[in-house]
Amino acid sequence: MKLRYGARLREFVVRPPEQDRKLNLLVGSVRSGKTWALHAKILWGCSYRVEGWKLLTGVTKDTIYTNVLNDLFTMVGPANYYYNHQSGFLRIYESTWKVMGAKDEGSEKFIRGMTVGYVVCDELTQMPQDFFQMLRTRMSPEGSRLYASTNTDTPLHWVKADLLDNQELRKEGLLWSMTCTLDDNPNLPEDYVKSLKAGFTGLFYQRFILGQWVMAEGVIYRDAWKDESTFTDKDLPVGLMWGGQTRERVISVDYGTVNPNVFLDWRDDGVTAWCYNEKRWDSAKEMKQKTDSELADDLYEFTEHDQSPQIVVDPSAASFKQELTNRGWWVTDAVNDVQSGISKTSTALAKGVIRFHRDNCKATISEFQTYAWDPKKALRGIEEPIKSGDHGPDAARYFCATKIPIWRLM
């Protein structure tokens, strides 16, 4: 597998570990070549003589395999590696490594007592700070090295505030970093770069394309929403609603008994997903709380007694999912990572992949105009939407995160 590096990354790639700092970070935009550059540092590490363990870390073993190991194994060839996914034991050439996930605050206990000489971190901003702090305390051998890659996040994130902006580390010569952009990866076709840039707006464009550390603030979908995000009956493809062409019907559900319950009715023709209708029950407004059985009855009426649609539901709605399953509905757990789901929904809106009926989905359309980041939590470095007027956007996010493949957004 042959890869070209931009001039700035090439300098990092060919530099032996002896000439690197103790902490070395590649940060910036998506697809800028950061992970490919780390492959070189893994290969350098195979022959680098240092005491202690050699570690490869990330959020989980699965993400490490997908992001790093899969391509690395192609590069070195099947005869030159052995990997046990369960134990995390990895051998590359004659060098022994340990692959270790670090997805939560309790992960740091797995490295207590270890002596670490060489470590490569994937997606550093997704890892807990206490794991990283413990990792640094284990890097006692002379000549120990850490290499990490990450996309940007809020400027209050510990990677930015406590590491990249730590002038003491830089003054002592312990920290080196480089901000990477798409220009640092000469392997990307021009049409792909254009498509990638067009797929992000606002906050996500600043972070994923420009590689900036920016605060999430204001209306979430402000830069993605446009006039073409809505439609009327005359805009529908011929036969979409009543057959005559390939299409899929999906109902996405933001489940609520105390909070409002929302059903969104999607008709997907493979190019555009048309949100044709919505149904809501707000127990506070109606002064009546419905049972799971009553909500299931509402769904049956909403679909006009059609039980063929796939029902995409928040995975935490266990009792409602069981009620629907008992009645013979096809129920699927929604992908419920809020940040990635919002990013995907924003791209789908910007690219015109999802649209909403102007007359039938008025409440959801209204909520999209006001759905905003929580400013108080943002000041603490926590990025969450305000938990008010979010039920239609949440149901739409479940649909996008679960049913829209990434290739349709490119």
Structural account:
With 410 residues, the chain is of the alpha/beta class. The chain has 2 domains: 7-189, Rossmann fold (3-Layer(aba) Sandwich); 227-409, Nucleotidyltransferase, domain 5. It is 34% helix and 21% strand. It has 15 helices and 15 strands. Strands 3-4-5-2-6-7-1-8 form an 8-stranded mixed β-sheet. A 7-stranded mixed β-sheet has the order 9-15-12-11-10-13-14, sandwiched between helices. A hairpin with a 6-residue loop joins strand 10 and strand 11.
Brief overview, please?
The protein has 15 helices and 15 strands. It has 410 residues and is of the alpha/beta class. The strands form two sheets. It has an eight-stranded mixed beta sheet.
What secondary-structure arrangement, pairings included, does this model have?
Elements: H1 7-14, E1 23-28, H2 34-47, E2 53-58, H3 61-76, E3 81-84, E4 89-92, E5 95-101, E6 116-122, H4 129-138, E7 145-151, H5 158-164, H6 167-171, E8 175-180, H7 190-198, H8 202-208, E9 230-231, E10 248-254, E11 261-268, E12 273-281, H9 283-286, H10 292-302, E13 310-313, H11 318-326, E14 330-333, H12 338-350, E15 354-357, H13 362-370, H14 375-378, H15 391-403
Parallel strand pairs: 1-7, 1-8, 2-5, 2-6, 6-7, 9-15, 10-13, 12-15, 13-14
Antiparallel strand pairs: 3-4, 4-5, 10-11, 11-12
